[in-house]
Amino acid sequence: MNHDLSDRTFNRLQFVIITIFCSVPLFVELPFKINLYLAWEGAYRFSIGQIPFRDFSLPMGFCFWVIPGIFFKLFGPSLYSLIIAQSTINFWGAFSLKGILQKLGLSSVQVTLSILVYCLSFVFVNFWPWYNHSVFIFQLVATNFLLSHIETQTKFKKHIYLFFAAFFVVVAIFTKQDGGGLALVSVSILMMYVALADRAYKWFGFYSFYVIFITLIFILPFLPYDFIYWFNYGQAPHNARTSINDILIDVFEGSQWLKFYLLVWVIIVLKKLNANPHYFRNRREILLNLFVLSILAQAFLVQVTSYIPHNVNIYFHSIALAFIFYHLLTPVFSKPVFFAAILACITFWWSADYWRYGQRILNRVFPNQAQTANTNKISKYTWLLPDSTASKKKEIKWVKSSYQTFYHVLLPEETVAGIDSIMKLPVLRKKELKVLNMSELTPLAHEIGYEPLRQHPLWFHRNVAIFDPQIDQLCRNIASKDYDLVLFEEIPYLNQFYPEKVRSYLQTHYRKVLTFIAPREKEGAFIEVYVQP
Question: Which residue from 518, 465, 511 is spatially nearest to 229, judged by alpha carbons?
Answer without folding.
Answer: 465
